[in-house]
Amino acid sequence: MDSINIWEWVGYLASVVVAISLMMSDIKKLRWWNLIGAGLFVAYGLAIDAIPVALVNFFIVLIDAYYLVKLYRDPPPPTE
Fold this sequence. Notes:
The chain has helices at about 5-20, 25-45, 50-75. The protein is mainly α. The model has no long low-confidence stretch (mean pLDDT about 90). The chain has a domain at about 25-75.
C-alpha cells in the first residue's frame, strides 16, 4: 500500500475546511473558513502542478479577502 504524502493530506484538509465553511450561517465566519480552505487548495495545486486548481482557488482567496475587507469596513445595515 502506498503511503499518503503530505500534499495529499493538505488536499484532504482543504476539502474539509471548505465543507466546514459552507455550514456557517455567519457570513464573516464563512468567508474566513473559505479563505483558509482556498488558500490550502492553492498550496496543494501548486505542489502537485495542478495550475488550474491553484488559479481558481487563488481567485476565490481574492474574492473572500475583498468581501472580508468590505464586511469589516462598512457598517452593517440597520435592522427594523
